[in-house]
Amino acid sequence: MIERTPVLNAMTHVILLMGLAIVFVPMWLVFVASTLTLQQINEPPIGFVPGDQLWANLVEAWTRADFGVKLVNSMIMAVGVAGGKVLISAITAFGLVFFRFPGRMIVFWLIFVTLMLPLEVRIVPTYAVAANALGPFQIIADTIGLTDLIETLSGVRFALEWNLLNSRTGLILPLVATATGTFLYRQFFMTLPDELVEAAKMDGAGPLRFFREILLPLSVTNMAALFTIMFLYAWNQYLWPLLITTDRAAFGTAVTALGELIPRTGDSTGGGTPDWNIAMAGCLIVIAPPLLVVALMQRFFVRGLVATEK
């Protein structure tokens, strides 16, 4: 039941306006700061009226941080992570909902528990795996004696190694598995009637055909919602790209490049007062792609989230 009274309506609008102000005012100040000269921005208090230096500041920020390559890297990382999460989560949820096997719920809860282990908590083991993605298989081969057996038979001792550091693959692969996506798909798949599965079986559809031709078309809005969430998650990543990329001119991302606009004492920039107008212009450049994605995907995003609540 939805209660509609003038007082509640007024309170609702007041809360909405307060929320809008909390979100909008800082963004407007960033925009205003990016349109001022360095002298104007260092004269307190900062006003709410934009200046006329926006284009000059955008060009200076683009040049200093070399945003061309870094925006491409960020886009590849965000699309790769979001696309990988959408695909892997759909397959995982499909197996959990439509197949009956021992330990099914244990597998689900083990996946669900990983929600409490964000990347920042497992950053060290994740880095170790990225340094040699085949290292776990090497340990298994050493443990079961396969390495020694091959060495005895062939005289060659093999070593498995796949270094993901300083690569776009390393930016993407360690982030593609997600419990959030699996849970989102699982909740949606559980709303589908059993008659749909029975009808597909009567028409001769196997599991892969049922997944490809029935489940995926029905999950378009969920896929769009998950893609949007994970695109923003991957685009805003700072710690992981900062940790695994030492060659930032080739593999750095746009978010980590913002740090190059802030002078730090003791490095090549020599320290000093930050050019906040240039830094804020850099922020506008970095937030433009995710804002565009959210604007384009907004309708599907809302539908996808609502559909999971059925």
From TrEMBL:
Q: How does it sit in the membrane?
A: Multi-pass membrane protein
Q: Where is the ABC transmembrane type-1 domain?
A: 71-297
GO CC annotation, single: plasma membrane
- Bilayer-crossing residues are 7-31, 75-99, 106-124, 171-193, 214-235, 276-297
A single Pfam family it belongs to is: BPD_transp_1
Per the annotation, which location comes first and is thus the protein's main one? membrane
What this chain does, per the entry, is described as: Part of the ABC transporter complex UgpBAEC involved in sn-glycerol-3-phosphate (G3P) import. Probably responsible for the translocation of the substrate across the membrane.
The family note in this entry says:
Belongs to the binding-protein-dependent transport system permease family.
Q: By what name is this protein known? A: sn-glycerol-3-phosphate transport system permease protein UgpE
Per the UniProt record, the source organism is Methyloraptor flagellatus
